[in-house]
Amino acid sequence: MAQQPDRRDWWRDAAIYQVYPRSFADGNGDGTGDLAGIRARLPYLAELGFDAVWFNPWYPSPLKDGGYDVADYRAIDPVFGTLQEAEKLIAEARDLGIRTIVDIVPNHVSDRHPWFRAALAAGIGSPERELFHFAEGRGERGELPPNDWKSEFGGCPWTRIADGQWYLHLFATEQPDLNWAHPLVRQEHEEILRFWFDRGAAGVRIDSAGLLTKEPGLPDFEPGVDTHPFVDRDDLHGIYRSWRAIADSYEEPRVLIGEIWVPDTERFARYLRPDELHTAFNFDFLARPWSAAELRASIDGTLAAHAPVGAPATWVLANHDVTRTVTRYGREDTRFQFATKRFGTPTDLGLGLRRARAAALLSLALPGSLYLYQGEELGLPEVEDLPLSSLQDPMHFRSGGTDPGRDGCRVPIPWSGTLPPYGFAADGTEPWLPQPAGWAALTVAAQTGDPDSMLELYRAALHLRRERIAGGFGWLPSAPEVLAFARADGFGCLVNLGEAPAALPEGAEPVLSSGPLAEDGVPSDTAVWFEILDTRL
Ligand code: NOJ
């Protein structure tokens, strides 16, 4: 179904590009990406065929967690530009047919946020502290943390301050958690939503959406008990219902997209009921290894979970938190796990690229919306040899240095030229994270017009998807190591994850493939899109 710019349900099958602003394009020559850089590159995203862009946080931030430590939700960090520029960007993108999705971070704020500073200054028992989770410690002198919870970044999620109280931070020390039982916290975030919706944002991506509410009294974690003290608690749904009412109150209803890591698919789908969020990232699909059985199970599980609530699935292969696809699929263990992201894991990048190309065609052919993280369209690998001194991610520091963290997928994008900064910034400028020496062949300029490049594969696939692919989904008969399916309108996709060549269904006419096809069928680690009349759906 061709995207019409004014469709109200555009989000049901949109292709959404994720921009990590620090690393997309530097317009002012300081080595950090910015809004000027993004505005100059909007035509690139429009030509590729994206319907929307999701921007990682662009707010003023001390950058203790890549901008997810927000000091002011209603402003733009001066390193990126100004609020007026953001408004221009949103309008210019819309003129090109691209909607804007803003990242909202409701679980925590920066420790530099005025509310937290006021809470520190106001002291024990003050109303200012009630906006956060301050508590007395355990032990004779309160020297032990108030409970046994673990930080999502590893280590203890409590920090003690000078007056003896502790405060909760599920992520880094500099990201105090808000107290969502407090009406002011709810009111503030409803106003923040309206602030960005009023400026033309078409939707919001909700950070850590499954973690906001905590069990009253903040008790220890009890394994085996049904309700977790801070993950996926039932009282979250009321919050999202009130957000949905706000989103629906706009003439073009705004869209709510949840970052929800909840493995139980039935619990996950509860967030997508018609009066809650519109969609949520499909981390189950992202985390699966390169295996037909695993991916088939994920696709079936995803479609089955979404159907009863009438929500579209989303398909995601990568983002700013995970190892880049080319690298992950080139490893022996192709699952995504935070713990497999170790230094020095042997990787076959050629194999990884072949599989990433096939995975691109797979994910673009499935029913629902699609997220692409910047640089995936170029087949960038994870940068695994960043100098230790350049690393910035708290996940690295909080692991005691054993985990490289997420900087390796956040390296600035190569646009042109043969040497760093590859057109990301003006020549002679040092990007905020160093780019590798060998990226000359991966730049946008080098790949443009090269029919064998990842960029041209994505371009062709995004255009075909927009013009051609729609309707229901059904598996076609195939060998177990092969995924073959058709959409109701006679469009099909086959991905061969086995060793032996796979035959295309009878009567199939190939229209696009991720690699060369052989006489005896579709080679290993290759995907093909085809037209087929008899889909038996
Ligand atoms: C999820 C974000 O994607 C990640 O980058 C961030 O560190 C955490 N939420 C905490 O905000």
Outline the structure in words.
The protein is of the alpha/beta class and 537 residues long. The protein folds into 3 domains: 10-105 and 282-454, Glycosidases (TIM Barrel); 114-168, Oligo-1,6-glucosidase, Domain 2 (Oligo-1,6-glucosidase, domain 2, Alpha-Beta Complex); 472-531, Immunoglobulin-like. The protein is built from 13 helices and 16 strands. The strands form 3 sheets. Strands 9-8-7-3-2-1-11-10 form an 8-stranded parallel sheet. A 5-stranded antiparallel sheet has the order 12-13-14-16-15, with helices on one face. It has a 3-stranded antiparallel sheet with strand order 4-6-5, with no helix packed on it. Helix 1 runs parallel beside helix 2 (83-95), helix 4 (183-198) runs parallel beside helix 5 and helix 10 (349-365) runs parallel beside helix 13. The chain starts with 14 loop residues before the first strand and ends in a 6-residue tail after the last strand. 1-deoxynojirimycin (NOJ) is lined by residues 65-66, 68, 105, 171, 207-208, 259, 320-321.
